[in-house]
Amino acid sequence: MSSSKRTRSWAEPYKIKMVEPVRMISREEREEAIAEAGYNTFLLRSRDVYIDLLTDSGTSAMSDRQWAGIMMGDEAYAGSENFYHLAEAVKKYYGYTFLVPTHQGRGAEHIISQLLIEEGDFVPGNMYFTTTKLHQELAGGTFVDVIVDEAHDPESEHPFKANVDLNKLEDLIKRKGADKIPYIAIATSVNMAGGQPISMANLKKVRRLTRRYGIPIIHDMTRVAENAYFIKQREKGYENTPVRDIVHEICSLTDGATMSAKKDALVNIGGFLALNDEELFREAQNMVVIYEGLHTYGGMAGRDMEALAIGIRESVDEDHIHARVGQVQYLGNQLIDMGVPVVHPIGSHGVFLNAKKILPHLSQDQLPAQSLAAALYVDSGVRSMERGIVSAGRNPETGEHHYPELELVRLTIPRRVYTQAHMDVVAESVEAVYDNRDHISGLSFDYEPEYLRFFQSRFKKSKKS
Fold first, then answer.
1. Is 93 among the catalytic positions?
2. In this protein, which residues make up the domain named Aromatic amino acid beta-eliminating lyase/threonine aldolase (predicted)?
3. Which of 127, 303, 341, 435 has the smallest CB count inside 10 Å?
4. Is residue 387 annotated as a catalytic residue, yes or no?
């Protein structure tokens, strides 16, 4: 018997119990569909999409236990039993004392922004996220990016590109004054950087610095379990620590959190604001009644709160999180082997194509990431999304485009939905588009809404420069 070892194959830690048919329309139909959608993949009809990698938000497959929980929904207007189950799960797995349920993450972002931010404040964070930044601006604040420089370099192999640059953060505090910084926004598994994690060591340093200045940390914990998995894989001293314990430790270093439960927590709708300060919690309770719903449902049905409570427990299961991140790594490594420029290292929830490098013949004003996402859909019916100049928006004072360093197309993998065979189809399509990249033309705006323009903008083929 040979003593040499080889890597053994692995399979998803679940069986398929129900299937949802998908269809592939013809190339001519796809060309017509994307044109009708104004070359915006958000405006495509889902029935015209073959493999949907637009987002991992609310697109995961729930487990049999979650579906059983749906049948246990207590739809009482006040005091639903499912709310108390959810509050218990949040305290057990995350450690936060108080819970304010919301319809999804941006409901929590709105409440915390309105409660803590005053006109003229500055909110530092480890890279912006679209809805978070907008809520901060609408409350009168200015977002300031204090992430490490490596996060803006798609080819950097830094293992923790979501780390905070402590010098940038302290410089901001000294220049503006601690009283003008209501909190620091810390995201785990930073989306706009390519699903990149923050290290525990860095978060502990941020905690020590903010305590010195009396500044709270508000945690965007949308993908905290995925971040914890990377800490287990990459950070010395955590190799044998269960993911659930790493998650709990991350949360213990923060003062509160906003959660879009539609990601890590494996539900199709829902979110919450979690807090440790009782006075702030009472204010948030009062606000949720105005904007979301009563404080014991906050925009969610009882059945959804029950599914969420179960999903939180499942999200920190070792087999689940290994398979979830592993599928993303599988697709990313295929594309790297094919020579396709992607963000390194491969992140937790999606593979991010480097549109600037793939389409160097297009200027950023020709919207290369938007153009690449449209071309990918035409090739195979795979729906992805832009994360570049369109997502970055405009300066609210000057009206000029923000020009981010990263111009990316995100291939976002829903949890427990697609097989490795689907990933193979995606990889082959990306390779085909990459091989034909010189023929991809740019786009320009045809319609642009005032806020979060990437959702609803329409585009047209741009004239050659």
1. no
2. 52-428
3. 435
4. yes
* Count of all residues that appear for the chain in the document: 465
Output the CA–CA distances (angstroms, integers) from residue 33 to 70, 122, 231, 405, 442, in the order listed.
35, 42, 42, 30, 18
Does the annotation count 130 as an active-site position? yes
Average pLDDT value for residue range 95-124: 98
What's the CA gap between 386 and 67, in Å, rounded? 32
Angle of the 81-93 helix axis to the 302-315 helix axis, nearest 10: 20
77 in active site: yes
Measured between alpha carbons, how far is residue 248 from residues 184, 241, 245, 296, 362 in Å?
19, 11, 5, 24, 45
Angle at which helix 243-252 crosses helix 81-93, to 10 degrees, equals 90
Q: What is the pLDDT of residue 245?
A: 98
Which listed residue (263, 303, 416, 453) is catalytic?
Answer: 263
pLDDT tops 80 at residue 464: no
pLDDT computed for residue 309 by the predictor:
98
Residue ranges and CATH numbers for the domains of the chain are: 27-56+318-461 (3.90.1150.10), 64-315 (3.40.640.10)
Provide the pLDDT for residue 415.
97
Question: What's the one-letter identity of residue 189?
Answer: S
List helix spans (H) across 243-301.
243-252, 278-291
365-416, pLDDT tens digit by residue?
A: 999 999 999 999 999 999 999 999 999 999 988 999 999 999 999 999 999 9
